[in-house]
Amino acid sequence: NYMLNKFIKIIDNLLVYPDNMRKNLEQFGELVFSQSILLALTRAGMLREEAYTIVQNCAMEVWKTGKSFKKIIFEQREITDRLTVQEIDNCFNINDHLRNVGKIFERAGIESNN
Length: 114
Known about the structure:
Blueprint: H1 2-12, H2 18-27, H3 34-43, H4 48-65, H5 69-74, H6 77-80, H7 85-91, H8 94-98, H9 101-108
């Protein structure tokens, strides 16, 4: 009970700055979408280990070169042979990652702006 009340106070006083959150996500060269690419590749029939290696290599290139993760993904024939442009673009949709936020807040009894 004590910890729950402490946590409620923390959440009640939490300040959220959506623009800063988006800037922080973009700072990492779209790497937050790497899991979406990996899952899309496995759904397209690629072995998970192979998909993981390809996506990991792309992510490392982002760190080394500073290039956009999405641009690097589109340069990989192993990926573009399996996924359409639309499927790749869909992997970079932040709204897919946020689609259940409202439900999560609702289950917790918290009002959401989503």
